[in-house]
Amino acid sequence: MLSFDRGSLRLDAPRTARVPPYLAWDDRVGAWRTEAMHHARLCEDAARYHLSLTDQAGRFFECPPLRPALPPLRPDQEAAVLAWEQAGRRGVIVKPTGTGKTEIALSIIARHRVSALVVAPLRDLMYQWQRRIRQGLGFDAGVLGDGRREIWPITVTTYDSAYIHMKEMGNRYRLVVFDEAHHLPGATLHESALDALAPMRLGLTATPERADRREGMLDDLIGPVVFREEIAAAKGRTLADYSLVRVPIHLAPEEQEEFDGLSRRVRAYLIERRREEPGFEWTDLTRRSRTDTEAREVLRAYRRKLALIHRSAEKLRVVEDILRLHPTDQCVIFTASNRMALEVSARFLIPALTAHSDKRERNAVLDGFAAGTVRALAACEVLNEGWDAPALKVGIVLGGEKGVKEAVQRIGRLLRRSGDRSARLYEVVLQETPDVTRARRRGRSGAYKAAARLSLGQAQQLDLF
Q: What is the pLDDT of residue 198?
């Protein structure tokens, strides 16, 4: 007897039975167990191990009646679907933001007529998926999360809610779609994929790579990368053409003097500590700062350094110049800190969105932006993923700490095609600070290499003459 039991498969067979190596004996219930995601594999291996299974694990929903109203897939989208099907209906599709990954998933649901669970990283994206399913498939999907508990044949949820509830519903869906799939290998979030029986698995992402190198887990949790398209290949075809303007600036003399003094203080402390404790790391400093006054002062000096980088007065002056250069264009200003987003907001009388903005404020600002009544907004790490704004063609990057992935996601906000308009990203880089190192690292990414490079003077000439 094979059954689904709280996110795992339970095989009721004698302990002496010959079973595949991925099953383990559970003394608590006197049966064999393995992760639910091994369901299809176990059914295939049963004959080789002379197991006659009575399979009662799957309790899949039937596909609801659908009324698809989807546009025809482009050749690149069709190729992605075909690659996924040929790979056994499992795998990750990597395509740039704005190239129609959502349409690919909806087409797969419509073609195969299966029950489906769509997992998104944010509540806003969850509701965006619900709207797209209603428009494209003619079915009002259930919502699991944000205080709602609707486990229906087609359901949308978040990674956090999937982690909590998959142990009870992991045997109900034949297809699981992981949107922004690079989130899945997180320390706990990946367990939702382990707890699901779903034989069909689809991952969607523009940037599968992770800073912790755990993206290799996607091969087991979803399947291998079956289709990959880079921004350079889609530029000017399915994405808007775009250019990158790097604006080098410097700290004011008094800011530079303070920055250098703070750097010397932090460096001297670390050298001294590592002389006494060769294995001393930055995490040791943060831990020691709780009880040690000197460590606490050094950590405060480091944070002041970051504040000088993030909130340099020259950055605000450059923003003013760029806004004057695009008097009629909508613009998003990406910052590295909430404080800088609020300073930009106060200086230019524009809305700011941060992680602390509540749902009502966020929706009001984004609705105003979509309607064209909000010309510009400042954002700190909240609009990097899953925000659709086809009219947006001007972005200003004042800082960022998450590296290449964040940079590519920010470019993606500008690249949804809107007529023949090209996009422009201004990257403000503070010289003689870590800003330069981060800019060089971003410049090695395919998205940055594909961009036409302009100086601020060239950009002014193009726009003014």
A: 97
